[in-house]
Design brief:
This protein has a 9-stranded mixed beta sheet, sandwiched between helices. Helix content is 30%, strand content 23%. The protein starts with a strand and ends in a 6-residue tail after the last helix. The protein is globular, with a radius of gyration of 19 Å. It contains 7 helices and 9 strands, in the order βββαβααββαβαβαβα. By secondary structure, the chain is α/β, with parallel strands linked by helices. Bound molecules: zinc ion (ZN). The site of zinc ion has 4 residues, from loops.
Amino acid sequence: MKKTTELLEFHTPENESVIFPVATVEGKSPGPHFVITAGIHGAEYPGIVSAIRIFNELDPEEIHGTVKIVTISSLKAFESRSMFICPVDGKNPNRYFPGSPDGTYTDVMVNLLFEHIISSADYHLDLHGGDMVEKLEPFTLYHTGADAETDQKSREMAYYYGLPNLIATTSDGTWPDRGSNYANSAEHKIPAIITEVGGIGQLEQDDVELHLKGIRNVLRYAGVLKEPPAAPGSITEYQNFVWLYTPVKGIFSATSPSETTSRKIKPWAT
Ligand SMILES: [Zn+2]
């Protein structure tokens, strides 16, 4: 029964260091092994800060089982403020799970993360926060196509997280989820979701609070916290996740640049 923090360090075959900051809360009573990962995209700060906040909040006296939290899964990206990718090899880690022990840096990193931390989980929650080019509505994704029980538990996790948009994805859908952290866990029979709150690389307290509300409720659902989960508010459920790709090169803005300028920037030389 305790709270611990540690830096788990490994090395790639090329002897490069791979470090995961891990925070663990061991509960007084037996219960599930719940794993939370954040910062697989190292500049998505609402997810990272929510991971740290929930660690500070959880009381070993009150929880059942163990909560293991990787607060920053892609430390190289965090340290270099890289959007989406791991700067060592330019790969997006959330496309390469379960990785490989003898690939490039990202392959090795995600393989270590899965094999040493995630693979023993009963539940897995992957926190994201809207990178610099993402102005997002909060949403949760869960994978379907593993087995009926895992699909159902993943869907229940997604439901109880309570974000207003809920999307089921598959390995062969319009946006194939193969290689993502949550889909890989589900394919290994670990109920899992990815939750995204925040946007344009900002750290807003409202976004962190929304994440924390969802985390607490999913911990209740899993039996880590003893209260029953609260029924969430209105959720729109989608069966498809479509990414649009432009056939031409250019710059896209959801609002016109002149609108953005007139609304948000005051003249500085008057
Ligand atoms: Zn992300």
